[in-house]
What we know:
Layout: E1 2-9, H1 13-30, E2 42-51, H2 55-64, E3 72-82, E4 89-94, H3 98-110, E5 122-125, H4 131-141, E6 147-152, E7 154-160, E8 164-171
Antiparallel strand pairs: 1-2, 1-7, 3-4, 3-6, 4-5, 7-8
Amino acid sequence: MKKMYFIAIYPPEEIIEEIRTFKKDLAFSYGNSKALKNEAHITLFPPFSRELELEEDIHIAFQKIDTNLLPFEIELNGFGSFPNPQNPVIFVHPENNTHLTDLYNRVKQQFNFSKYSFTPHVTVGYRDLTWENYLKAWEKYEHTEYKTKFLVSKILLLRHDGKWVPIAEKAFTEVQ
């Protein structure tokens, strides 16, 4: 039996709740119910499928990711979008961050079997967001202010079991 997996950073619960407010707005005002399916996160490696029997290999590769890092801050600032008419996306925009890019490259050293361009974002609206509703929502969100920051000190490995469930985490280990 195949399962889906991915690797991500999750902000603290209070930021997940703040972002859920935007997701609820997209669900109720713009018909984007899929927005509510996932918790707010930044994807470091996108969903991939593997046989459940091979999960141990995924855990081994995940544990090999070099997390000899100091915790670092990510600043979220405003909204961005991917204006693709077939699959538009609205997201909370993280500021450029060399530490985040470095972390992504460390993940990629162990998980390099997929071509994946790294554009960090926290998805708010996607999947069942129609192009028409995207245009209406983007009119609002393009100018909506939202600013916060959080400390990143670990990464998570998730498996899809009807919903995404964390099955492993790896804390940063560098000491001062």
